[in-house]
Every structure is written in structure tokens, then in C-alpha cells.
Amino acid sequence: MSNRDDFPRKVKQRVAARACFRCSYPGCFQPTVGPSDESTMAVASTGEAAHIHAASPGGKRYLASMTKEQRTHIDNAIWMCGTHATLIDQDEVTYPAQKLVAWKREHEDRVAAELRGTSPRLPDLVAIGPDTIATGELVGGAGMAWQLRLEHFIAGGLDSLVRFGEQFDETKALDRYVLVNAIGDGRVLARPPAWKKVGNTYIIDADVMPRFPRTRAQDLGEDLALAPDGDLAPDFGTVSGVDALPQKIKLCLWHQRGELVFHSDFGSRLAEYYASFRGTPWLERLIKLEAIRLAAIPYQQSLPPDEYTPFQCVDRVISVELLAREPTNHWMPARIELDVVGLGTWTSEIPLFIPEPSTAAVPTPGSTGCSPE
Hints:
Blueprint: H1 9-18, E1 33-35, E2 43-45, E3 47-51, H2 68-71, E4 77-81, H3 82-88, H4 97-116, E5 125-128, E6 132-142, E7 145-155, H5 158-166, E8 177-180, E9 185-188, E10 194-198, E11 201-207, E12 223-224, E13 238-239, H6 245-254, H7 270-277, H8 282-296, E14 299-301, E15 306-308, E16 314-322, E17 331-332, E18 334-340, E19 344-349, E20 352-353
């Protein structure tokens, strides 16, 4: 007799329907049901109601304290394609329960917004190096080889993409990257990306480096505590570990790239993006793209020599939401949701510092309404 606590048929049907019969793995969204060639009445299904906490002892993320009712409840189910259901059942370190719960919530929220017609339905963004940003998506991959499709250029264009490839060896290491908003992650490029035009889109083949290691939030080093306005405040003492996380995120975003004399490559490009894209729906997506860069792409410090991702402990950027249309006295309220090593999903309201537009170099935006010619 099996000791597995499998989901009842009704639970499988409900979790699939709540997911719109699409995989909940970030960036996948693959349909899992459709017509079969067997007959005009036949239906093919490739989806699975995967267990967040395993169905039986010895399985990944098994929680002995759960009752049978809890283990077979819809709250313990996440709908995925067969490939990703197998993947999460092989690795509980990369896919802890809290991460799967967050994925399920995000996916169902997105489906609900589309159903209500409140989803902005804007395409998401991909960046290849610092000068080329386009709407697009990750469409394939094998090992360290990624394939992307670019549709409409938001900044730069075909010329900047070609130039990036030609000057790749002379480009700073921290600017050789690809960032994908849909998965909240990015990678360092191992070599110049290859491209070809297919219809009105570009297909990019990118060989990437392995994911740069992060540290646990609990292991963040000690630093002086800052006052709410960002000034040093000796009376506040020091912060370290998890207590240092909000300050770490703030400082990386607040510092504009190029303003620190001894660390000219450190910091964000928020002022640039705000100057060019204020008042547009692209600004929020561009800020998320910049947060991904700070989370995933290593910064090489010269004094003392060191290499680390600026956010250090952020595994993935889940979402960035601006809470106002304009900054007040240079401060723009925002809500940021991150996947943090050692903590899981972490959400905080963080004010973004937007300096005077004249102090920031402005990128050249591409057309947001034409095909990439």
C-alpha cells in the first residue's frame, strides 16, 4: 500500500484552472493542455500538480508535521509543466518551499489580473550590455547557452548590439551581461552574442557564465547604520546580517553610477532611466532591470581587491512597484520584492533617490512602437 498523500482529482483540476493551465515556473508560462492528434475529441495534458511539501517521507521538502489533509490540500499544490515539476522535485536547496509558495502566488495574481483585464499587458524587457534594451523574452536554452528573442528596442538598437559584439573584448567585465526581466535574473556573457533577424524580430544566441555565487543574508558583514535620509548616524551604531539587508539595497540603488570617486563603476542608473522614461510605463520595468543587474552581475572592487554582486545576497528580483508617479524632494516611494538567500521572499518599501536630471547621463531611447530595424 502506498504511503503517498496524492492530491484528489478535484484539487488537481482546481490548481490547474487557477493557473490557467500554464506552468507557474517564472519565465515559463507554458500551456500544459491542448488538442491531441488521436481524435477530434482527444485532449493532451503535460501539466502536473506538484507538491510543495513532498507527498511521502524522503521526498523533497517533506514536512513530517503536516497532516494528510494539509499535504493533499490545494495550498500544498503548484501547477507546473512536466519538465519543471521534475526539476523542483530533484532539488530542495534551489527550490525551497517558501520560493514555490511565492511563485504560485505571483503566477495566480498575474492570471487574475489578465482575467480582470487590469494587467498592463506590456511586453517585458531584455538588456544585452548597458546600451541595448528591448522588449523580448528568453525562448530557449541548454546548459550555459541561452536563446532570446528581441522585438522592439527601448534603448539602443541594432547598431548598439553590433557595436557591443565588435567591442566585447574591450568592454569592462561588469558590462558584459544579459538581463531578463521575466525571470528576475541575469548572467555574465562568456563571449559576444550571435544574432540573426527572423521576420520583424532578432534571435540572440548567448553563451553565459555560471551563476555568480551569493552569500546568505545572515552572513552580511557589519556596517555603520545610516539615518533614514542616508546620512551617517553614529548614534545608530552598526548593522550586520539580516538587519543590514535593507540598507544594502538602499545604498546600491541610491548611489548613481559614476558619482563615487574611488568606485566609479559602482551604483545604479536610476537617474538616467528617470530622465528618459519618466511618466511612461517602461520606467518601472527599467528599474527592475537595474535591480537585476545589481543582484546578478558581479562588481570588481580594486581597493581592496574583491568581487561580489552589489546586492550580495539577492537570488532573484521578483517585482518592483513604484508607489507614486513623481518623486517628492527627489524621493520616489517603491515596493521591492526579492528572493533572498537564507530568507526566501523578502518585501520592503524602499524610497528611491532620484537626483536632478542634469546630473545624469541620458541614454538614447529607441522607438517603443516599431519593429527593430
